[in-house]
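quick q for whoever's on today - can somebody do inverse folding on this one?? i tried earlier but teh output was garbage lol. tokens:
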């Protein structure tokens, strides 16, 4: 099946207002920046985003945030994005902060058809007992707080430990970026740019992948493929200029 689309506009054209998006990337590494720009231009709004973070103020998901297109986000940290922090504290944005490993496993579970799982991460904290501020009011009060989660005791090597139950995450759409992909959607990621991309791709009902290199079908080593094409619905080949346009979140020189 040929999954290649001719433009970013075509790739995101059916993403409606109110959609839930799982977006790959870590900081600015491996983010689907071309698809994000196309989504910004499409005008889609009232979005719920699941991503490790929300880019920076002028790049990545930060562009959607600045435009007021994101209603809610599930993320691990605020990062370098001052607008993210401002909107959250001003009560303009609902934020479900989630431990990073838990977020990864919630996405993996969603992509694997697993409804929930138990983890020791967060036991004894507000992650388990509830009360984390998800949305503030204009006066600084907590309008929406996280609910308590079920906690159960299991034995690990004969020693009882408490575990908190975390529910899987699925999304209407997933936007990811790969170093290479073929027309059937088989993807290869480069080094740390793999990060959350395969997890988000599997968790999305419709997955759209932008690829830096479009490889002929059969040319990718089957053992080198990180994400099988069964998880990918659309493939957007990038131009050389688009593929090389990568920002550095924080430049450090000696």
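ok took a stab at it. sequence:
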């Amino acid at each position: 099946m040929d999954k290649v689309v001719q433009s970013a506009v075509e790739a995101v054209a059916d993403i409606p207002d109110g959609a839930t998006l799982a977006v790959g990337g870590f900081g600015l590494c491996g983010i689907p920046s071309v698809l994000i720009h196309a989504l910004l231009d499409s005008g889609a709004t009232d979005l719920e985003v699941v991503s490790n973070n929300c880019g920076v103020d002028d790049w990545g998901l930060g562009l959607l945030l600045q435009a007021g297109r994101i209603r809610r986000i599930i993320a691990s940290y605020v990062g370098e994005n001052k607008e993210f922090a401002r909107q959250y504290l001003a009560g303009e944005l609902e934020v479900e902060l989630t431990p990073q490993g838990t977020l990864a496993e919630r996405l993996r579970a969603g992509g694997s058809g697993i409804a929930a799982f138990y983890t020791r991460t967060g036991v004894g904290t507000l992650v388990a007992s509830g009360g984390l501020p998800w949305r503030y009011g204009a006066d600084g009060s907590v309008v929406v707080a996280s609910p308590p989660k079920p906690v159960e005791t299991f034995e690990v090597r004969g020693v009882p430990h408490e575990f908190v139950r975390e529910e899987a995450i699925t999304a209407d759409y997933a936007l990811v970026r790969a170093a290479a992909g073929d027309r059937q959607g088989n993807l290869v990621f480069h080094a740390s740019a793999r990060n959350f991309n395969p997890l988000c791709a599997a968790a999305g009902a419709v997955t759209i992948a932008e690829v830096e290199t479009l490889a002929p079908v059969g040319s990718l080593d089957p053992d080198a493929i990180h994400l099988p094409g069964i998880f990918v619905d659309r493939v957007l080949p990038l131009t050389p200029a688009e593929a090389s346009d990568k920002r550095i979140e924080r430049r450090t020189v000696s």
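fwiw The chain has two domains: 8-115+168-244, 116-167. also The first helix runs from residue 8 to 12. so keep that in mind when u check it
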